[in-house]
Amino acid sequence: MKKGRAFFISSLFLPVRLSPLKMTTAMLENAHPLWEQFRQELQSVSSLGQWTQLRDRYLSRQRGLITLEVKKLGRLSAEERPSAGQRLNVLKVQVEKALENHYQLLKEQERFRQLQSERIDVTLPGYYPRRGRIHPLRRIQREMEEIFMRMGFQVALGPELEWDYYNFEALNMPPGHPARDTQDTLYITENLLLRTHTSPVQIRTMQQQPPPVRIVVPGKVFRRDAVDATHSPMFHQMEGLVVDAGITFADLKGTLEAFLKELFSPQTRVRFQPSYFPFVEPGAEVVISCIFCSGTGCRVCKQNGWIEVMGAGMVHPKVLQKVGYDPETYTGFAWGMGIDRIAMLKYQIDDLRIFFENDVRFLSQF
Ligand SMILES: [Zn+2]
C-alpha cells in the first residue's frame, strides 16, 4: 500500500510541480536567437520614435525580421517545420508583449516629463498686465466737460472739415474781414477749410434748435502754424455758448468764474479784461491769478501774477440774426479756450509737443 501510494503521489504530483521549471528551461533552450537580440535592442529604446522603428524592424509585414523568418519556414522539411513554426509563434507573441509593455512605460515617462515642464512655481512673481491710461488731453477735456455738464450744459460736436460760411461768414467775418488773416487758415478748396476754431458748431447748433441753448464744444482745430513749444498746426479747443432770454454779462462772469475755480482751485481769482473778437460784443479776455505763484510773480506768468486762459464775450447780435434768432428777445454769451493750454497749466508742462509724441514714460504719469 505504502509503495503504491508513493508511486501514486509521485506519478500524480511530481510532474505537476516540476512542470514550470521544465517549461522555462525548455523555453530558454528553445528560444529563438532573435529574442535575445530583440531584448538588447529594446533596452536602448528611450523614445516613441525609436520604439516605432524597433517595432517595424521586427514586425513589419514586408521586411520585419520575424516576418522574414516565417518566410524561410517553407524551405524546411516537413518534420522540422512544426516545431520551428511554433518557436516563431512564441517569439512573435513575446516580442509583441514586450513592445506593448515598453510602450506603456514610454508613455508614462513622457507624461511625467510633461507634468514636470508644466509645473507651476507658485513662488515666482506674477506678470502684471500694464494698465492703459487716458491721454492727458482727453483726461482734462473730460474733466472740463463734466464741470459744465454739472452746470446744465450739453456737449455738442461738429465737423473738422468746415465750410468757409460756418467758420467765418456766419460768425461776423465776411470775406475780406481783417480777422480772417490772423487765423492762418488751411484751405482745402476755395470754400472748404480745416476749421480754425470750434465756433462753427455754435452756428450749426443754433440753426437746428430754438433757444435756450447751453452747449460746450470740444474738438480739434487747425492753423498754419510752425511747431514749437507753444504752437502746433493741430490743437484742441473747447467752446461754450449760452443763449436765452435775459442773459447778461453777469451770467458770463458767474459761469466762467465758477468753472475756473472748480478746474484750478477755489482760491483762483478771475479777471475780465476788454478784448476784441468779431463774433462777440463786448469781448473779454479772461485771466486768472497765476496758479504757480498765486499771483506773486514767477516764470510761468512772466512775473505779472496773471495768466490768460480764454476769450469770451456777449454773442454779437449779427450772429444771432444769421441763425434766425431775434436779438431783441435773446441774448447770449460765448467763450473759447485751448484744451492743450489748460492741460499745460494744470499739469505744469512747458512744452506742448510732448502731448503729441506719445512717449509712454510721459503718458504713464497720468
Ligand atoms: Zn506766476
Molecular structure report:
The chain has 366 residues and is of the alpha+beta class. It has 2 domains: 31-117, no CATH class; 137-363, Bira Bifunctional Protein, Domain 2 (BirA Bifunctional Protein, domain 2). The chain is 46% helix and 18% strand. The protein contains 14 helices and 10 strands. The protein has helices at residues 2-30, 33-43, 48-59, 65-72, 80-117, 136-150, 164-167, 178-181, 200-208, 249-263, 317-322, 339-346, 354-357, 360-363, and strands at 154-155, 161-163, 186-187, 192-194, 213-222, 234-245, 270-275, 280-289, 306-315, 330-338. The strands form 2 sheets. Strands 1-5-6-10-9-8-7 form a 7-stranded mixed beta sheet, with helices on both faces. A 3-stranded antiparallel beta sheet has the order 2-4-3. Helix 2 packs parallel to helix 5 and helix 3 runs antiparallel to helix 5 (80-117). The protein is rod-shaped. It starts with a helix and ends with a helix. 25% of the residues are buried. Mean pLDDT is 87; it is low at 1-23. The structure holds zinc ion. Residues 290, 292-293, 297-298, 300-301, 305 line the site of zinc ion. Zinc ion binds next to loops.
List its salient traits.
366 residues, alpha+beta, 2 domains, 7-stranded mixed β-sheet, 3-stranded antiparallel β-sheet, 14 helices, 46% helix
Shape: rod-shaped
Helix count? 14
In CATH, the topology of the largest domain is named: BirA Bifunctional Protein, domain 2
Q: Which ranges are low-confidence, i.e. pLDDT below 50, for 5 or more consecutive residues?
A: 1-23
What characterizes the major β-sheet?
Answer: 7 strands, mixed
What structural category do the secondary elements indicate?
A: alpha+beta
Question: What is the domain tally?
Answer: 2
Level-1 CATH class name of the largest domain:
Alpha Beta
* Terminal-residue CA separation: 112 Å
